[in-house]
Amino acid sequence: MKKNKRSKNWVIQQHRDQYFKLAKSSGYRSRSAFKLLELNEKFKIFKNCKSVIDLGSYPGGWSQILKKNLKNCKILSIDIKKMSKIEGVDFLCCDFQREGSKEKILKKLNNKADLLISDMAADTTGNKDLDCIRTNALCAEVIEFSINVIKENGVVIAKLFNGTDFLNVKNLANNKFRKVNFFKPESSRDHSKETYIHCAGIRTL
Ligand SMILES: C[S@@+](CC[C@H](N)C(=O)[O-])C[C@H]1O[C@@H](n2cnc3c(N)ncnc32)[C@H](O)[C@@H]1O
């Protein structure tokens, strides 16, 4: 391995370890928890939030943050993998992309949500372009779905990769929402292409 590739890998590993240790000592199930805290710091997504959907919730770091920061808020978390119980969090085990899953989610909601957050990423295949396409397809599906499940002034946060199909997702979001922004939390620094889209206010015309 070349020397500067080795030192870059060392920096990435140090960065990962730092957030891993911090998550452990804070009692969070994943270091992703810090990404959600940063996203809230940036966009104030928790303000007046009374109902939230957490897509791709396993192992539960984001759900823990939601529970801790949102009082009297209905939290519905969803993942293909079974997430261990978090008091006050409703969990649905299903594949978001599978036929019938979106209807199941809609059934679980009494009212439309204020916030939809998605940290879903497709399983890695070893082919970075393909992984990027599949995760960005998931992100596009989340944006399409959000129109049916969030309030008109609701907010969406979703993971995507800054690579193939990024512009298609951005255009889709701009067609559906009045405000669209991107933000890469400091705690996600090691995944060079990972970023988050923030969409607010559904376009009605
Ligand atoms: C990066 S992890 C989420 C970490 C989580 N936000 C946390 O803080 O602990 C991504 C999750 O997305 C889930 N996922 C990926 N594709 C999915 C799909 N089609 N339906 C449901 N969950 C999915 C994976 O099972 C995985 O648990």
Describe the structure.
- The protein has 205 residues and is an alpha/beta fold.
- The protein has one domain (3-202): Rossmann fold (3-Layer(aba) Sandwich), CATH 3.40.50.
- 41% of the residues lie in helices and 24% in strands.
- It has a 7-stranded mixed β-sheet with strand order 3-2-1-4-5-7-6, with helices on both faces.
- Helix 5 runs parallel beside helix 6.
Concise overview:
This protein is α/β, with parallel strands linked by helices and 205 residues long.
Q: What would the keywords be for this entry?
A:
binds S-adenosylmethionine; alpha/beta; 7-stranded mixed sheet; 205 residues; Rossmann fold
Secondary structure tally, helices? 6
Major beta sheet, strand line-up = 3-2-1-4-5-7-6
Question: How confident is the prediction overall: mean pLDDT?
Answer: 92
Number of domains: 1
Task: Write out the distinct hetero groups bound to the structure.
Answer: S-adenosylmethionine
Low-confidence stretches: none
Q: How many strands? A: 7
Gross CATH architecture: 3-Layer(aba) Sandwich
Sheet with most strands: 7 strands, mixed
Overall spatial form: globular
Identify the CATH class. Answer: Alpha Beta
Helical content stands at 40-55%
H/E element order: HHEHEEHEHEHEE
Strand content: 15-25%
End-to-end distance, in Å? 55 Å
